[in-house]
C-alpha cells in the first residue's frame, strides 16, 4: 500500500514541477510529460498490485520496479533543474568579453542535455517493460473491482477478534445505555468513534446485549468497506423478520420496501459495526426508517466525519485510551488467573512492557496473552521487552494488521502525510503548524482551487485526526489543533511501511532503513556519529530532520553530492562552526530551512529561489539577499534584523513575518495582504503610523505579537478583524484599550498599566478563553468582575503588584477552570461566582474570601509564599487548603 502512496506523490510532484519550472524544462518538457502520463496510468493498477504483492513475489517485484522508476524520474528531473539553474547563475555572473568561458559553458550545456536524454530513454524503456508485465502478472485496473477482496476478508475476520473485557469502559457503557433507552421519539444515530484496537466493537456488543430486550426487534451486522447492499438487506431481514426462501429471492427494491414497512411499525435497534464512509450511510439510512417510535441505530467507525454526518443532533461517543491504572488492571487480568498476585520481581519489567502499549486495549491484550504463555522469569520477560514491536507484529492475532486497516483505507493523498509522522521521535509532541509547513515543502499537498496550501494541509491533518490516525495533544485557544502526537504502534506501522519503499530512514533509533543506499529522507535521533551521517546516501536525499544534540558539518554532506535537499530541519543539533556553509546556496530545491543556534546566514541564500520557510532562533543579522526570496511564505526570525535596504514588495506570498523592528516597516508593509501572523520585537516608536496602517488593511491577520517594544501604536479598533484570535501586547503602556477583535480567544498583556475601564471592555468579549494579565498590566488598587462578565474565559493569570482588592461578582466567569493569582491583598468571590472553577494557585496573597455557593467544583488549591493567608472560605475549600 505504501508503493501506491509513493508513486502518487512522485507523479503529483513531477506534474507541479512541469508547471513551476516550465522555463528551465523547455527543451525536455515533452519527454517528461510522457513519463508523468505513463506513471499516472500505472497508478490505476497499483492498488490491486499492492494487495497482491504479499502472496506473489512476481507482483512484489513489479511493484518495486514501478516504484524505482518513479524515483529515477524524480532524480533525473530534479538533477536537470539543478544543473540548469547553476548554468543560468554562471551566465549572469559572466563578463561579456570572456568568449572562451562562454564557449565552454555552451559545450557543458550540450553535454548535460545529452546525459539527460540518455537517462530519459532508459526510463522510457523500463516503463515499457513494466507495462508489458501487467497482464502477465494478472494485475487489473482498480476500477474493475475485486482488488480489495483480501482486505475485506481481513476486516471481517478482525472484527470477530474482540476480547470481552470492559476495563475502563464502565462510564461509557452507562452513557450509551442511557442514550439508547431514553424517551426521545425520533430515530437517533449513536456513533462510537475510536482508533483500531481501542475496543469499539467490544463495547458495542456488550451494550447491545444489555439493552436489546427494550426493543421490539434488533440486529447486529458487520459492514465491510466493499459491502453489497443485498447482503446487508438479507442480514438485517434475517434478524428482524421472517420471509420465505422465495420471498428472499426478490429484487433489492422489493426487499427494501418490505424491510422499511416492517421497521416503520416497530421500535428497533440496529448496530452497524465498522462503517467507513459517508456514502455507505447514505445507502443504509433508507433501509432504516424514522417512525418516531424511539428507534435507535448504533454505529462504530474510525472516522469522526462519518459519525457527524450520520446524525448532526447526536454527539459522537469518543473511545479514549486506557489510563495507567486501567492499563495495569487489564494487563494483570490477561496474564494471571483471578486472585493471583503479580510477582514482585516481574513488576518493573511488566510496567516497561505495558508502557509500549500506550493505553491501547488491543496491544495490552496481545502482549498480556503472550506473557501468559511464557515462563514467569525475569529473563523470559526481558526478552519480550527487548522485542515488543516484533511480538505485536508477529502475534497470531496480527495486532499490527488490525491497525494497518486504517492505513490501507486512507486516500492516496493522505498516505505520505501519515508515513511522514514516523520521522519524529517516539512520544514527540508535534507542532501542527510545523508539520503543515513540512508537508507543503515536501510537496504532499494538492492544489485545491484558490485555497492556500496551508489551509488544505490543515484539512488533511483534521482528516487524519478524524480517522483516528493522529491524537490531538493540545488545542489552541480558538479550538484548532496546536500540537499532536502519533500512537507508538501507529508510528511503528508508518516506519514499517516506509522501510519497504525507502521513504525515510532513521539514525539512532535502531531502524534498519538507515543503511539503505537510496534514501529520500533521514531523521537523526539521539547522538549519532558524524561519520555515520556523512556516509548516508546524500545523492538521493531530499530531507534531513535532526532531533538530537549531535554535531556535524553540513558542508561535508553537501560536498558529497547532497544537492537535492527540499527540507533541512535542525531542531536540537548544532552545526559545527555555528553557521551555515556558503554551499547552502547550491541547494536550489530547498523549500524549508530551520536551524538553531546560528547568528548569520550566507549571502548565497539569494540563490534559494524556491525557499518557502525560514525558522531561526537566538537573534542575529539576516543578509539583504533575503529580499530576493519571492516564494517565501513564512519567516520566523524574532530578534533578527536585516542588513541593507528593505524590499518588502517581493514578499507577495508571505503569510508569517516575525522580525526585529526596523526600517522595513516603512517599506510598503501594508501591501503584504496575505499576512496571517505578525510578530515584532524591539522599539516601535518610529513606526507607529506605518504599522497601524498596515494592520488596519490585513483582513487575514490571525495572530499579533508586539513585545520589548517600549511603545505600542495607539490602535483605534480591531473590530473588523474577524480572523484575529490571538494577541500579545507587552512592555509598553496602553492609554486606552482599542476595540478588540470579536473572535479574540487569547490575550496576553504586560506593563500595559490598564485601569478598571479596560476590564469592563475585556469582560464583554464573548470568545475570550485565555487571559494573561502579567506584571503591571493592571495599574489600579481595585478590580471588579461583574455578573455575566468573561462568559467563556477558561484560564486566568493575574500578576498585578498594586492590586489590593479583587471582587468577582455572582454570575461572573462561569466557565473559568483555572486561576493563578499573585500579589493580591484581598480576593473576594461572591455567591454563585466561578461555578466551574477546578484549580486555584495563589502566590503571596494575604486574604481570600469565598462566599457559600461559589466555587462548588473546586478540586485543587496550591499555595506559595502565603504563610499568613487569612481564608474565610466554605468547608469544601477549607478541606482543600488543609489537604
UniProtKB/TrEMBL annotation:
<dbReference type="Pfam" id="PF23559">
    <property type="entry name" value="WHD_DRP"/>
</dbReference>
<dbReference type="InterPro" id="IPR027417">
    <property type="entry name" value="P-loop_NTPase"/>
</dbReference>
<dbReference type="Pfam" id="PF18052">
    <property type="entry name" value="Rx_N"/>
</dbReference>
<feature type="domain" description="Disease resistance R13L4/SHOC-2-like LRR">
    <location>
        <begin position="541"/>
        <end position="852"/>
    </location>
</feature>
<dbReference type="InterPro" id="IPR041118">
    <property type="entry name" value="Rx_N"/>
</dbReference>
<protein>
    <submittedName>
        <fullName>Disease resistance protein</fullName>
    </submittedName>
</protein>
<dbReference type="Pfam" id="PF00931">
    <property type="entry name" value="NB-ARC"/>
</dbReference>
<dbReference type="Pfam" id="PF23598">
    <property type="entry name" value="LRR_14"/>
</dbReference>
<dbReference type="InterPro" id="IPR042197">
    <property type="entry name" value="Apaf_helical"/>
</dbReference>
<dbReference type="GO" id="GO:0098542">
    <property type="term" value="P:defense response to other organism"/>
</dbReference>
<dbReference type="GO" id="GO:0043531">
    <property type="term" value="F:ADP binding"/>
</dbReference>
<dbReference type="InterPro" id="IPR038005">
    <property type="entry name" value="RX-like_CC"/>
</dbReference>
<feature type="domain" description="Disease resistance N-terminal">
    <location>
        <begin position="6"/>
        <end position="91"/>
    </location>
</feature>
<dbReference type="InterPro" id="IPR055414">
    <property type="entry name" value="LRR_R13L4/SHOC2-like"/>
</dbReference>
<keyword id="KW-0677">Repeat</keyword>
<dbReference type="InterPro" id="IPR044974">
    <property type="entry name" value="Disease_R_plants"/>
</dbReference>
<dbReference type="InterPro" id="IPR058922">
    <property type="entry name" value="WHD_DRP"/>
</dbReference>
<dbReference type="InterPro" id="IPR032675">
    <property type="entry name" value="LRR_dom_sf"/>
</dbReference>
<dbReference type="InterPro" id="IPR002182">
    <property type="entry name" value="NB-ARC"/>
</dbReference>
<keyword id="KW-0547">Nucleotide-binding</keyword>
<keyword id="KW-0611">Plant defense</keyword>
<dbReference type="InterPro" id="IPR036388">
    <property type="entry name" value="WH-like_DNA-bd_sf"/>
</dbReference>
<feature type="domain" description="NB-ARC">
    <location>
        <begin position="170"/>
        <end position="337"/>
    </location>
</feature>
<feature type="domain" description="Disease resistance protein winged helix">
    <location>
        <begin position="423"/>
        <end position="493"/>
    </location>
</feature>
Amino acid at each position: 500500500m505504501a508503493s501506491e502512496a509513493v508513486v502518487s506523490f512522485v507523479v503529483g510532484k513531477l506534474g507541479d514541477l512541469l508547471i513551476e519550472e516550465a522555463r528551465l524544462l523547455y527543451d525536455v518538457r515533452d519527454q517528461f510529460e510522457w513519463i508523468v502520463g505513463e506513471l499516472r496510468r500505472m497508478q490505476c493498477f497499483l492498488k490491486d498490485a499492492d494487495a497482491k504483492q504479499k502472496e506473489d513475489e512476481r507482483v512484489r517485484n513489479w511493484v518495486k520496479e514501478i516504484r524505482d522508476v518513479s524515483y529515477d524520474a524524480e532524480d533525473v528531473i530534479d538533477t536537470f533543474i539543478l544543473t540548469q539553474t547553476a548554468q543560468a547563475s554562471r551566465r549572469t555572473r559572466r563578463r561579456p568579453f570572456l568568449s572562451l568561458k562562454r564557449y565552454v559553458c555552451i559545450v557543458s550545456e550540450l553535454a548535460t542535455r545529452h546525459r539527460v536524454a540518455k537517462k530519459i530513454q532508459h526510463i522510457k524503456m523500463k516503463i515499457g517493460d513494466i507495462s508489458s508485465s501487467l497482464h502477465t502478472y494478472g494485475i487489473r485496473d482498480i476500477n474493475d473491482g475485486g482488488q480489495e477482496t483480501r482486505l475485506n476478508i481481513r476486516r471481517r475476520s478482525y472484527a470477530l477478534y474482540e476480547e470481552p473485557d470492559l476495563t475502563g469502559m464502565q462510564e461509557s457503557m452507562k452513557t450509551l445505555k442511557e442514550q439508547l433507552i431514553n424517551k426521545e421519539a425520533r430515530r437517533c444515530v449513536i456513533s462510537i468513534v475510536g482508533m483500531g484496537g481501542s475496543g469499539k466493537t467490544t463495547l458495542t456488543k456488550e451494550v447491545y446485549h444489555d439493552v436489546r430486550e427494550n426493543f421490539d426487534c434488533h440486529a447486529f451486522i458487520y459492514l465491510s468497506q466493499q459491502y453489497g447492499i443485498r447482503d446487508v438487506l438479507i442480514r438485517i431481514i434475517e434478524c428482524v423478520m421472517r420471509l420465505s426462501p422465495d420471498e428472499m429471492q426478490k429484487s433489492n427494491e422489493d426487499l427494501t420496501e418490505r424491510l422499511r414497512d416492517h421497521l416503520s411499525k416497530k421500535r428497533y435497534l440496529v448496530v452497524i459495526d465498522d462503517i467507513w464512509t459517508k456514502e455507505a450511510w447514505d445507502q443504509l439510512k433508507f433501509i432504516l426508517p424514522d417512525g418516531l417510535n424511539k428507534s435507535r441505530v448504533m454505529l462504530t467507525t474510525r472516522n469522526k466525519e462519518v459519525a457527524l454526518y450520520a446524525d448532526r443532533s447526536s454527539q459522537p461517543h469518543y473511545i479514549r485510551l486506557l489510563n495507567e491504572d486501567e492499563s495495569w488492571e487489564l494487563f494483570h487480568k490477561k496474564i494471571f488467573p483471578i486472585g493471583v498476585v503479580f510477582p514482585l520481581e516481574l513488576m518493573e519489567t511488566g510496567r516497561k512492557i505495558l508502557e509500549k502499549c500506550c493505553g491501547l486495549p488491543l496491544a495490552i491484550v496481545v502482549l498480556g496473552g503472550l506473557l501468559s504463555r511464557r515462563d514467569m522469569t525475569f529473563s523470559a520477560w526481558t526478552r519480550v521487552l527487548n522485542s515488543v514491536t516484533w511480538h505485536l507484529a508477529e502475534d497470531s492475532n496480527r495486532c499490527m494488521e488490525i491497525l494497518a486497516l486504517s492505513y490501507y483505507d486512507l486516500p492516496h493523498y493522505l498516505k505520505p502525510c501519515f508515513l511522514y509522522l514516523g520521522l519524529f521521535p517516539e512520544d514527540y509532541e508535534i507542532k501542527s503548524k510545523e508539520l503543515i509547513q513540512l508537508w507543503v515543502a515536501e510537496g504532499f499537498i494538492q492544489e485545491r482551487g484558490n485555497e492556500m496550501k496551508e489551509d488544505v494541509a490543515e484539512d488533511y491533518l483534521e482528516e487524519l485526526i478524524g480517522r483516528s490516525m493522529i491524537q490531538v495533544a493540545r488545542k489552541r485557544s480558538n479550538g484548532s489543533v496546536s500540537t499532536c502526537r502519533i500512537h507508538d504502534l501507529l508510528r511503528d506501522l508508518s516506519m514499517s511501511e516506509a522501510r519497504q519503499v525507502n521513504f525515510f530512514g532513521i539514525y539512532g533509533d535502531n531502524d534498519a532503513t538507515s543503511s539503505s543506499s537510496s534514501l529520500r529522507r533521514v531523521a537523526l535521533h539521539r547522538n549519532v556519529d558524524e561519520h555515520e551521517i556523512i556516509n548516508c546516501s546524500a545523492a538521493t536525499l531530499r530531507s534531513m530532520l535532526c532531533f538530537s544534540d549531535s554535531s556535524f558539518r553540513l558542508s561535508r554532506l553537501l560536498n558529497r553530492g547532497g544537492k537535492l535537499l527540499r527540507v533541512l530541519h535542525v531542531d536540537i543539533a548544532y552545526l559545527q562552526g555555528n553557521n551555515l556553509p556558503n554551499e547552502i546556496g547550491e541547494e536550489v530545491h530547498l523549500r524549508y530551512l530551520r536551524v538553531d543556534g546560528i547568528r548569520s546566514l550566507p549571502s548565497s541564500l539569494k540563490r534559494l529561489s524556491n525557499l518557502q520557510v525560514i525558522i531561526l532562533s537566538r537573534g542575529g543579522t539576516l543578509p539583504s539577499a533575503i529580499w530576493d526570496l519571492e516564494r517565501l511564505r513564512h519567516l520566523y526570525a524574532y530578534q533578527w534584523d536585516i542588513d541593507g535596504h528593505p524590499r518588502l514588495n517581493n514578499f507577495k506570498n508571505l503569510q508569517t513575518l516575525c522580525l526585529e523592528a526596523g526600517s522595513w516597516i516603512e517599506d510598503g508593509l501594508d501591501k503584504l495582504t496575505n499576512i496571517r501572523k505578525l510578530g515584532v520585537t524591539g522599539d516601535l516608536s518610529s513606526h507607529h503610523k506605518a504599522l497601524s496602517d498596515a494592520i488596519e488593511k490585513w483582513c487575514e491577520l490571525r495572530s499579533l505579537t508586539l513585545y520589548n517594544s517600549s511603545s505600542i501604536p495607539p490602535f483605534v479598533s480591531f473590530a473588523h478583524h474577524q480572523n484575529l484570535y490571538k494577541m500579545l501586547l507587552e512592555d509598553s503602556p496602553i492609554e486606552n484599550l482599542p476595540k478588540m477583535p470579536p473572535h479574540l480567544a487569547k490575550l496576553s498583556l504586560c506593563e500595559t498599566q490598564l485601569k478598571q475601564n479596560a476590564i469592563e471592555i475585556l469582560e464583554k468579549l464573548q470568545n475570550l478563553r485565555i487571559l494573561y494579565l502579567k506584571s503591571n498590566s493592571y495599574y489600579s488598587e481595585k478590580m471588579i468582575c461583574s455578573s455575566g462578565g468573561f462568559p467563556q474565559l477558561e484560564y486566568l493569570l493575574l500578576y498585578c503588584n498594586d492590586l489590593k482588592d479583587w471582587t468577582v461578582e455572582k454570575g461572573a466567569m462561569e466557565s473559568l477552570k483555572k486561576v493563578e493569582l499573585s500579589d493580591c491583598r484581598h480576593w473576594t468571590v461572591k455567591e454563585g461566582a466561578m461555578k466551574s472553577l477546578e484549580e486555584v494557585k495563589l502566590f503571596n496573597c494575604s486574604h481570600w474570601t469565598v462566599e457559600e455557593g461559589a466555587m462548588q467544583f473546586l478540586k485543587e488549591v496550591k499555595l506559595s509564599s502565603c504563610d499568613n493567608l487569612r481564608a474565610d472560605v466554605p468547608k469544601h475549600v477549607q478541606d482543600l487548603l488543609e489537604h
